[in-house]
Predict the 3D structure of the following.
Amino acid sequence: MNFVKESVIEAPVEAVFAFHERPDAFELLLPPWDKTEVLQPPTSLAVGTVVKVRARVGPFAVHIVAEHVAYAHNVSFEDVMRRGPFRSWHHRHLFYDDPGGCRLRDDIEYEPPFGWLGRLLDPIAVRARLTRLFDYRHDVTRRVVLGDR
């Protein structure tokens, strides 16, 4: 399955990418309604960097381990889920020049858990949650990069 969120932020690509490289960026992008505990924050966006969190999925706590697998300065970085609730998860963070500034694109290829049942429930159980999460993340990115103007 594929999920994409795109936004244009009125700032240069370099500024939007630099926000993602900040040591506090990962925690700033965690929405307040999500009960996520960061066990091992990212130390950089470099290939091989591992992130560990404990998240709530309904009444359950799940451990998630993600690893950065690709990095191109001011262009993209990618992570894959090594452990977590999804059968597979590959997240590409892409940054493009745009007439309005920077086009930020989150492109996620994933396979939900529980086979056919997970695919059936995807629109309400996964896609709706991803939409809310990435709307929040893009809004935070815009506000921080633009200085709340």
Q: What stands out?
A: Residues 2 and 109 are 5 Å apart (CA to CA). The radius of gyration is 15 Å. The chain has three helices and seven strands. The mean pLDDT is 94.
